[in-house]
Queue: 4 jobs
Job 1
Amino acid sequence: MHFVKDHCSEDTCDLEFRSQKVNCSKLKIIKKLATVDLAILRCREKKFPQGFKFEKDFNLGLKKGKVTIYLTDSNLNVIQKKGKIKWNSRLMYVISTRLTFGSSGSPVFDENGKLVGVVVRAETPQQGLLGKIFPGYKFSIKAVKSKYIKSIMKGNPRMPEMIKNDLLNHYRAYIRNKTKFDRFLESLEFTKLVNSFAYDFPQTSDVLTVREGPFWQKIPKVNSRFFPLIMAYHLEKYGSFDVNPNVLDSNSLELLKTFNSTRYFGQQAFFLGSFILGLLILFLTVFVAVVSSFASLQKIRNGG
């Protein structure tokens, strides 16, 4: 999906796609889902040969098994990379395989040859940044689960509910277990995912309020089926300040209690704390420099 955002306008991508069997110079966007960073493209000039066959069983129980990732090198040769599942949520896998920038979209297969995922990004934002800056830098990866491909292609009317539940599962199992700077980076990625969810499903009016800041006076019913997701978003972005636990349902209350048990206070507090810490370090640095300079001048005056 990030490839589509960078290289396509409207529903057309004027780029050349080449493989051993196909040479296509124009691609059309059929469907897209920003939350899981996937887009379905079709060649406008020539049909592709039969692609991967989707089985009913997507092996969602795959936890720490071995996988194989297929990608192409600069000469368009198909190469295989082996790896292991390091971590698993209902939304995505974290895989040990170390790849380079540009590997997004590569399919991930289990040991039985079933498609289980699609590479979407580096394991951590800082690794992804280094991959952009330094060509050839390798990093472990995240892959979204293949069930979303089938849902996008066939159209699943329950997709908003499914993705909402998967986002909450991902948040509970992965994001809020991080600490310090890692927590901050994963928190930024999570709030970006929720904003993408709002982009994908604009008809879900509850979710649109995440773009408007604190939402306590903007949502008429806190028992909305999407409220726990918005609650998680609010906590990560603004912290638990001014949250009234007496109006929360059990899911949202659990999110609040767990959040308050950590030492993370939200992105805004992290920004403010980092800014204050930076000012203190700058002040101490200047103070030490001034004292050192003053001591040196005194030594010179005293003929030392």
Job 2
Amino acid sequence: MKRKLIAKIFSVIALSALLFFMINPSAKAAGLFGPPQTVSKEAGGLNTAIGYRYHEDTYKNGTYHTFRQNEIYSQAAYGAKNIWEIYARIGIADLKIFDVFSSVDASTVTDKKDFEENWKFFGTLGAKAFYPINSIFGIGAFIQGTYYFSDFTDNVSGTNGVTPFTAGLKVKNLWDVNCGVGLQVTIPRGIKLYAGPYIYYSEAKMSLASDIPDLEYWTGDVSVQNKSIVGGFAGVDIPLIKGFRLNVEGQYSDRFSAGAAVTYTY
């Protein structure tokens, strides 16, 4: 009875968090890889989570720009036999791109350098498999992909010589896919430590609504991709009160990302 009550409270918290970030777009909030081994019951069962990740990466196409995101998400997962799991996430994220509005000529002056958009919805699908070497050590593999359902947009104003202009930059079809392997060690009190390498690819289209001199790099649909495709991750998964666990994880590719999630096993 108490577990059911706690689960209901957890669900309310997850829903409230999502509503908070939807109503207040200035609040900042994709996802962790998590431990290789599922936290679902061995006989099979559901686990849910709410999570947050701070994400940075470098994208390229002739020049380099830093992308920064804050992501918050809710997850539902099903796993069994301590060896496999499938999961789905829905969340919201902001996007900041540094120096994307910088002019290449002094005759063109813009009112800002950085692109900023608040929240947009994204979805993630993933799966993982785990092989226990013994009761302490194990190795697993995962694959997950994320797609942003809406375009990110921001406007820039300025002057070209004495001629004023306003233009909108759109980031559309942003997606990524990750796959990797991880080693896991289970220490006393059921704490799981894990780490491993991963391969990562992300792509988006960027286009400027108007043809602005000295900003013409973004004229038309320009494809951008992440600079580095290989990274590493490490994390810890800690049991809390009955049914709940805390997962904290760091990821590094070209830049550092980190996040945390709280899961509940039914």
Job 3
Amino acid sequence: MTGSPSEGWKNFADGDEAEDVPLWQVLAHIRSDDLDEGLSANAAIIGQVRPPIARYYNVAFVVSFAFGFLSVLSMIGLLISAAYPGATSSFYYLTLIMLAATVAPHLLRQAYQYGLSIPEAPLELPHGPDRLFDEVLRYLQRVDGPQAFYRSRFRKKRIPLKRRQFFGRLRYFLFSEHSKDRGMVMRFPTAMSLPADLYLHRDDVERMLTMSKPKRKGGPGRNTKYRYDEAIISLIGDPRLNALDLNDRAAAILNIKNWLSEWFEANADESGDVPRRDQLTRYAEKIFTHLRGCYLH
């Protein structure tokens, strides 16, 4: 990060609501000083894991809607059958079955995201991890961490969000810029969909921006030196490079950044200091350009 937290905050200021910062903007700004670049990187990561989850969500919605409609027809039949005692019991049980089938997709989706009981620790992700997503989530999962909140739909009051909301399997979707993605994550512990936005207070954001600045070591004024050359050399001969789709530049660069990040995580020194993902972008772009040049020739 560059500049002081107060300078970085200017990118978030928005009239009377400058005290409330959308969660997706926070992550994007921590990832990169260029907000658009940060949003694009976050969207690419979420986009890789969205398709199967979105398909399941859409199927569950259709099933629930269909059985809900049938349950209404069954209730009408139940009222009409009141005049025919022999048919009443059949419509009664049919209505119960339809109502259960209407609710079942929501309960299954909730159980998949948060388990069958209150989660005491973050659940296993159904997709590959991202270091920066997890780093920001660790702040939000702590008892003494920043207090996320949403605004109530009618009174516009700030409603604090339980930290266990960030324990679910689909917790990455809470950082999506799109409300439809956030809507696929249920508010814990109810089955109500999330409001349009989650927020952090400006003071919490400033502290997170300060904590996310790269660490220094080796004396004042000396920047941490990362072993970029070794990380790049480690990819030479990696079979994953041959499988890259060089026609999709954004996805290819994202994958290369993921592999570089994995190498730094696995080979971190005692300080545990590793480069931020935005610091890997230009190296990933150089690798892509080299691969693309070899492919064309």
Job 4
Amino acid sequence: MLDLIYTACMCAVLGAGVKMLSPAKMQREMRLICTLMLVVCTAARAHGGFSLDISEFAPNDTSRTSEYGEHVLADTEYALGQRLDERLAELGINAAETGIVCGFDEYNYVRAEKVFIVVGGGDEVQPARAAAEELFGDCETEVTVVDGNAQTTADR
């Protein structure tokens, strides 16, 4: 019973402090919020209290970090793929299929590790390779040619 009285007093003191520090135009809203807080805390204490398990809301750091890294890589690969497609279209290579593999370097920066380009003709190989080198520098680039007879040749 003493805990219930202590909880009610603490909520009332905190509520009075908040109401005193709040601007005049928000007095009515703050009074409502503080009253609700007093009722909820007193009711929770009267029924044995409540516990909040924060682990349900925030996963551990390792899984959150790996999920974030996966999202960053996926978003970066998509954005770089779009940029490569735009550059190839500027060069007149419209039917190319592209793929980019990104990873983190030793400084935790995202960088393109490998670029895949599939073109329809042998005359598109050098412009496609030049576009990839222009955008991604020294990363590994693989240009594959698929001609009408379904024969493929890879230029690495």
